[in-house]
Amino acid sequence: MRRTTTIVAAGMTAAALTVSACGRSADTGGAAAGQTGAAVSTGQATGTITVWAMGAEGENLPKLTKDFEAANPGVKVQVTAIPWDAAHDKFTTAITAGKTPDAAMVGTTWMGEFASSKALDPTPAQIDKAAFFQGAQKTTEVGGTSYGIPWYVETRVLFYRTDLAKKAGYDSAPTDWQGLKDMAKAMQTKTGATWGIGLQAGGEGSWQTLMPFAWSEGADLTKNGGTAYNFDSPQVLKATQYYRSFFTDGISNKSAPATPTTEPDFVNGKVPMFISGPWMMSAVEKVGGAGFKDKYNVAPIPAGSAGSSSFVGGSNFVVFKNTRNRDTAWKFVQWLADPKVQAKWYTISTDLPSVQSAWQDPALAADKKMAVFGKQLETAKAPPSFPTWEQAVKGLDTELEKITKTGADPAAGLKTAQQQADSIGTGL
Question: Residue 128's CB: how many other CB atoms inside 10 A?
Fold first, then answer.
């Protein structure tokens, strides 16, 4: 469904593909206060490097690395594809044994854990951190030091049925919280929708749907100078109260099945709005069939008092400290951050570029729905890179389920989640 453009990268040297730091102001890039990796030499890359990547990215990456090899004659990039469900254990085992690859794709929520184990090499100064979406760049930073680059990104926006919206009396998407709730209710009363909007009623990962509202209120998930969790702030509380109201008012289903039925429910009009990422475009269009792409649209998260924000995810690319070919490993990572290479990777994988200028490529610029994701990425945020994040956020997910499904008091639930997070600590 997307227009693609082939970018020929062969013939470019690694040096030419380096993301330039020229013109960078002193306050750009979050790693300024931390450690900076040693510079990488100019000229072509040499030798062999080993690279690990997960899932479909691991399977598709060799299609891209051949261009790096062509640009650097004699270089060999050996890619190992790893299943996502085995990746974390494989990395931790390799770190303990001192047998990590030279470079690797790493999940954003693993950065704190791996950096605190002293396994990662700090990002060299010549990589311009300001080239990336700010929220994505933050996912590489642990304790003020950047490790690697944001490789690709994703964010969440509002999906809505435009045909049903018109039936409900709306010609455009809601832009604020009250507008979202009013439109969702109108979808029920005027179009026959069972539920106005599909929201996750607690459980694993539900924080990812709540936090765009909290960040839109100016919430910060850390306090005390970034040294502690901050789950029970007034901003998170306000967002949680708003989120809860969709369930208590019967606009969202608090008894949704464990296995999501988002695509068919969206197509048949049972649930005409939901919040999700770019992968859902092809998913709903596949279920909807020919012409369905003209029956829906996407829009930024409705704004709170601090504007519109969302969750930024994706994966980073890092270099491990015990690499035997650091120079080429970093040149490869630099190359992955070149805007043209990022645009070509999108045509191969549909992964969204982390480098802002890559969005000017016709493959992305011509897609109006995709442009909404690009705009949302400008203000999207990520959770803190604490080694204990995944453990601490489980408590928040559990409390959200009590709040949405039983109507439990949001303030009490967030206080409990905060106490659990405090007892776990940040791990730094």
Answer: 18
Helix (H, G, I), strand (E, B), or coil: what is residue 82?
A: strand
Structure tokens at 32: 């300024």
Phi, psi of 308 (to 5 degrees): -105, 130
Instruction: At 332, list the tokens.
Output: 């490869």
Cβ atoms of 427 and 112 within 8 Å: the answer is yes
**Residue 404 in tokens:** 């949405």
Token pair belonging to 351: 């992964």
- Distance of alpha carbon 181 from its chain centroid, rounded? 25
What is the SS3 assignment for 369? helix
Question: What's the chain's length in residues?
Answer: 428
pTM of the model: 0.84
The secondary structure element, H or E, covering residue 276 is strand 273-276
Q: Residue 426 in contact with residue 229, Cβ under 8 Å?
A: yes
| Bridge partner list, 79 | 51
pLDDT in tens, the chain (428 residues): 332 222 233 333 333 333 333 332 333 333 344 677 778 888 899 999 999 999 999 999 999 999 999 999 999 999 999 999 999 999 999 999 999 999 999 999 899 999 999 999 999 988 999 999 999 999 999 988 999 999 999 999 999 999 999 999 999 999 999 999 999 999 999 999 999 999 999 888 899 999 999 999 999 999 998 899 999 999 999 999 999 999 999 999 998 876 789 999 999 999 999 999 999 999 999 999 999 999 999 999 999 999 999 999 999 999 999 999 999 999 999 999 999 999 999 999 989 999 999 999 988 888 999 999 999 999 999 999 888 998 999 999 999 999 999 999 999 999 999 999 999 999 87
Cβ atoms of residues 403 and 417 within 8 Å: no
3 state SS for 284-312: HHHHHCCCHHHCEEEECCCEECCECCCEE
DSSP category for residue 340? H
What is residue 118's DSSP assignment?
Answer: T
Cα–Cα distances (Å) from 222 to 62, 296, 304, 388, 422, in that order, read: 39, 36, 20, 13, 11
